[in-house]
Each structure stands twice: as structure tokens, then as C-alpha cells.
Predict the 3D structure of the following.
Amino acid sequence: MELQELLLRIIVASVLGGLIGLERDIHGRAAGLRTHMLVSMGSALFMIMSELVAIHAATMTNPGLARIFSDPGRIAAQIVTGIGFLGAGTIIKEGLTIRGLTTAACLWLAAAVGMTAGGGYFILAISTTFFALIFLISLHYLERVYPKDSYRVLTIETPQDITPKTLINLITEKNVKVVYVEFERDYKKGLTIIKLHVHIFHKGITDVLSHLIIEKIESGNIPLKNIKWSRK
């Protein structure tokens, strides 16, 4: 293989991986343009080395010895395993909320695109990158169209001896349900702390509902010390 062709494969892989990373960078993800570009470029290089090692082994002759054959897929196969560790580093668990799955999948895709470009299949690599960008951009807006489940925690502190049932009746409606309740009463401070774990079936920006829920509580003639709305 000519050196120019090998360099072209690496350049194409890095550009395509960079395009996927640019979309992640725009959304403020830790693994962005540079990370995806390097992943794709490295995958392409491993793919090229797999071919070169196999070709070198097949053409190498030793007097009195049989010809050596090498499996070109052995080095490339380790990319699939190795990229899993890098992708796992982008996944963050906050309570019941898991973030970074899309970025991890993008890293996995960038490695696949790099391997494809490294193998010389430019049309397939370019087409995959094109469709990936279309899906990442368009589906981001489509997610706002249909309703989906979300979970939040509403923490209320009040000096009054109220029961959780009072708050549950205030906020419960068709798309808002209380899953379970944590209740604490501090007799020294004269403070009642109630945590409502809320299940919401809603389309659009879920946290916009927080303003409506808090307004209901504030208009419920309950003396309040503090209200906190957070993710689970």
C-alpha cells in the first residue's frame, strides 16, 4: 500500500470522528472534538497496522521454514474491547439518573468509523457519519415532542406540623404522581422535613413543571422555610 493512501485513511478517519465529536462538544460534553478525533484516528491506525502486519508476515520468507500467516483481525478486534473502557469513563450516575450514555455510544461509533476508514471503505465511513449526525441532531428535538418518564425529588421544610398527605394532595395530578415519601421531624428546631419522590410523565422540559408545583405549594397556606427541587 502506498504511503499517500495510508495517510488519506488516517485523515479521513480523524475528520469524520471530529465531526461526531463536534456535535458532543456543542452540547458541552467532556468527550468532545479532540477525544473523538483521536479515537477515530487511533482506530484507523490500528486497522492499518493489522493489515500491514498480516501482509508483512505473508510475504516474509525464511529459508527452511514454512511461510508465516497472521490474522489481520487480531489487532483490530482489541479496539472493540479497549474502547469500552474509555466509554465507561464518560458515564456518570447521579442517583437514579445516568448521564453520558450517548457520549459513550458516540465514542464507540467514532472507533467503528475510524476502523472503517482505516480499512479503506471511505464511502461506508462517510455515510455512517452522515446518518449519525442526522440522528444526533434531529432526534434531540424529536425527544421534546413525545412524553416520557422522569423522576425528581421535592424537599419541603416547614415549621408547621403538617402531614405528607397534605402536600401530596396539592401536587398530585394526571401527569405527576408521588412514588414514595421520606418524613423527618426535628423537635429541637421545630422543623418538619418532607421529601417527595415524584414520578412525572411529561413532554418537553420536565423541570419547567417545578415552577407550577412550587406555586401550588406556596398558595396552599403552608408556612415554608425552604423548598428544593432536584434530580434523583
